Amino acid sequence: MTPKERELLTGMGNCHAACHASFEETVEMVGGSRGLSPDEVKSMLTRIRETSGRDEEYRNLRSRLPQDFPV
Hints:
Layout: H1 3-19, H2 23-34, H3 38-52, H4 56-62
């Protein structure tokens, strides 16, 4: 994972832990705070999952999010 990808996924976990918002709301908040559209965030999250899905760091960060989040 790149530092930017790591920071985005960490932000998703932090945001959800603080607000317990839905996936769409979390994406919107995280994107808004980083100057990204929700579609950009979703695209980045998909790419992270596809390229780092088996990586231990990804799995640790992903475990902070609900199972039903498609990231």
